Each structure stands twice: as structure tokens, then as C-alpha cells.
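User: Can you help me understand a structure? I only have the sequence.
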Amino acid sequence: MTEIACFHVDAFTDRRFAGNPAAVCPLRAWLPDATMQQIAAENALPETAFYVPRPGTDDFDLRWFTPEVEVDLCGHATLAAAFVHSRLRAGAPTRLRFWTLSGPLAVVCDGEDFTLDFPARPPVPQDMSEEVAAALGRRPLELLASRDLVAVFASAAEVRALRPDMAALSRLSGVFAVIATAPGGEPDADVDFVSRFFAPVQGIPEDPVTGSAHCTLTPLWSERLGKSQLRARQVSRRGGELRCEMAGERVLITGRAVLVKSGTFYLGDEAVLRDMVM
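Assistant: Let's start by predicting it. Here is the structure, written out as C-alpha cells:
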């Protein structure tokens, strides 16, 4: 019987039941890919992060799974993994390094704040698509693209008012996800920009708070607003707050996290499990 600890963490928030939930499973060695995907599906959270120690170093290998697929970059589950490790291990270093499909990612822990050092993914202009406008239910001012398609709107109120057709979004050819964004303004005048993130093809109709999206949004709004440090809000139903900074070809994303619950996955002989509970 193999027991796998699992922690449910709300990331990019300082209060429970807000921000973006992630599951974190610290491992001694990798499980089979199919098993990790099954655990992620069972968790039914936007992301489940698995990490293992790198032999001979203080670093870790880190992987992220939605309920449907493995992904190449996830901000909130990286923050959650750093949070879990810093809270589980007495004397944990204040700087962690994770090796991922997107290369090495550093996280600096400073009290309650966790700062992710991620690659910048600046977007490039795209032709307007009536298919995208119809799927979002509102025509954006412009479209751009990096890993994700970016729909820029005139106001935060427009982004909040979107009621996209998820089935139509899932039919967009070659689109990983769609980000809707706008500069800050009422009712979000206290931040520099807002966003929402839709990824139904990845098993996430609307992600509550998306760290990786800010690898694209930060260079976009940094250039347009003429400032390197920005405050961002993802205006999903749960909502979340991020502080973002351009640092050359990197993006620094700072947020907080809280533990919601913990538990154990039991993998192996069901007869052994019956003996445990009867």
C-alpha cells in the first residue's frame, strides 16, 4: 500500500475559499504518468502539482496536471508547491528552484509573500477573428497571441460582463486558452489591469487566477502603461490579486497562499485498504 500525501492550497490570495485552488503532492520518486493524471482528475481542481527532490541538490523537479492533461507552465500550483514545502520542512530555504518543462523556475519566500521568477511570453498581434468574438460574446478591440490568445477590451467592466460560450471556445483551432484583459478602471480602478482566463479544452472552463497568463499580460501592460511594476486582478468569481514586475526577459509574480485541507491517497491493494477500515 502506497500512501501519497496531498495538500489543498488556495493560491494568489490571503484568505480561504478565494484565489485559485491547487493540490500539491510531494513525492520521493515519480509515480507513473497515468497515475498522476488519475490523481489530478480525482482532485478535480484546476491543477495538481507533483514534485520530487533532485538527487545531490536542494532543487526539485516539478510537474503540473489539470484534470485532463499535463501542462508546460502553471503559476498558482508552483506557488502552492513552494508554500507546502516551506511549511512542511523546518528550516526550508527562502529560495527554491524547481526544474520544469519550462526550464528552471525560482521562487523566493519572504514571510507570507512568494515571488515566482517566470519566463516572459510577450504577445504578438493577430488578425481579428469573428469566431473568437462570437465565442466570447463580445468583440474585443484587438487580438494578440503567445501560448494563449489574448483578447483586449476597452474596460474592466466589459471583461467582468463576459459570458463566453465554452463549447464554442473549445472548438477554436490551435488555441490553448483565451485571456480577456483590459486596463484597470471602475470597478477596478485600484489595479493596473484585469483579466479572465478560459481554457475549456484543458479541462478548465474558467481558471480563477492564472499565474502563467501573467507571463504574457505583464509585458503587454508594462509596455502600454510605461511602468515595470504593476498590480493585477483576475476578476473571476473567486478572484485573485497579483503583483507583477518586468525583469528583463523574466516576469516576477508575487502572491500569497493559504492551506485549506490535507489528506492521503492510498494506492495499491484494495484488500489492504479493507483491512484498514473494517
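Now, to help you interpret it: The mean pLDDT is 94. Residues 75-88 form the longest helix (14 residues). Let me know which part you'd like to focus on.
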